[in-house]
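yo, Outer membrane protein is done. seq:
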Amino acid sequence: MAQAVVEPIFRKIEARAKHAGIEAVTPARVVTNDADVHLVTESGAIIRKAREQNGKVFFMLPPGIDRVWLVSRTSRPADTIGPFVDDRRQLGVLVSNMSLQEGVGAARNLENIMQDANLQGWHGVDAGHSMRWTAGHAEIPLVERTPGALAMLSVQIIAAGPYVLEGEQTEQKVASL
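structure:
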């Protein structure tokens, strides 16, 4: 059922329970909207963003890198929005466009990544759109790189978060004891 149908029913039951003095069983969760987006190379090196502008994240790539993974936090909408949302996927970030700029040449659009069902770490393409959610560790092959050239990878992120901070929440509880 759709969230628009289920959430009002959930909220009414929740309000009745509060009115009857019944406390919530699930603890409040610590959440963030920071996706902690970065790249990881095949050797395990971490590449942090060089800059971010208008939802577009830019990464400087050294020569010789022909495959990276777009890494971010993940959460399930059912956990961050509420149990009335029937989406149990682990979602990272929603990507709509990627391009690779090498040297002074024109940027190459990496649109094939948005359609390739064989790439690891990606959910299916959203119906009717050229957008795709990552699962938190999404493969990005960088084919036909110019040997010895630095590159700038740009990733257009349409949506991200909220993310449940399970580990950090536990650390906060332990620190307060």
